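Possible regression after last week's pipeline update?

I re-ran a chain I had predicted before the update to compare outputs. Posting the input and the new output here so someone can diff against the archived version. Not blocking, just want to make sure nothing changed silently.
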Amino acid sequence: MDVTGLRIALFSGNYNYVRDGANQALNRLVEYLLRQGAAVRIYSPTVAEPALPPMGDIVSIPSFAIPGRPEYRFPLPIPRRAKTDIEAFAPNIFHIASPDMLGHDAVKFARRLGKPAVASVHTRFETYARYYGLGFVEPVIEAMLRRFYRRCDAIFAPSDSMAQLLLKQRMNYNVGIWTRGIDRAVFNPSRRDLDWRRSFGIEDDMPVIGFVGRLVMEKGLDVFSDAVAQLEARGVRHKVLVVGKGPADTWFQERLPSAVFAGFQEGPDLGRAVASMDMLFNPSVTETFGNVTLEAMAAGLPVVAAIATGSASLVEDKVTGRLIPAGEIDNFADALAYFCDHPDARRDAGRSGCEASRRFGWDEVNQELVDGYMRVVRERAAGKMPR
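New output (post-update):
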């Protein structure tokens, strides 16, 4: 069988109603699959005004707004009408992108139909609780995730470091890699725009420390702001540029009163914003890959990041940036201060990062997942079942 024989039923808790790195990757995957001649059907919650136009056809799944985070929706199990649609579509593989009620029901339904199910891992859900004072429930969440992933034929991690963690956590023993790509037409050093920086009152020679992403606590906003406070206490010349928006917007602005908040950016505007920074600071430990890290590298920026899944597979310490143990405020501040004070070091690390980013092309990484699909279909046809 080749790719034209694939019929994929894709289940996601958020395919396109709120833009994030995970659903942008899923939409790029579906575009690639359709372009290669595969058949794809998406099952996901929908809203009247989604954040991005969907690739492929979506069957709407009932959902409700998550309390405290109403921009996100929690999908319910697959309704009867959708199950009828799935049976008519006749998939030969199920792809589940989120371990929610919809995902659990999709694995159960795949088993009932005798079809293989795979899961892609997009974030470290078990770590979220610690940012809301509920770290004690992390082992419980991990156990629930293990139960879900072990029922799949295979799981796919976006980085080698995440794959190793999943094996260590015993989530599944059939772990493949589906990494992420980069659009080099959008993210490259030529997008740097000093006039755009000047519009925010940023001097040309001012070292700019960038943050890119949704403004939510699980992105490490507390660590980011504490490290910046250290720089200010030391008298290190710098400016913070924040690109993104989210529920913690007001909190972050109060913690960083001197920062420039450029709001949400996308496409070429995002590429310009990233390239117009001088370094990226990514203290988060929740990512499984770190799209913003790769985008910054492609734009020629050094990256200061936490030693965590995702960034640890992208950043080469003391070559393309610095990797610092999670939460070590003083050491983060030391790394940022060094790049602020040494423009030659910024330039050298940025060039190395830009070169390292060249191996991440979207078609190439999506084909790796297609190869994984076909391997799992062959294994199921040969009688191999998930444990």
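Follow-up from reviewer: compared with the archived run. The CA atoms of residues 307 and 325 lie 5 Å apart. Marking as no regression found.
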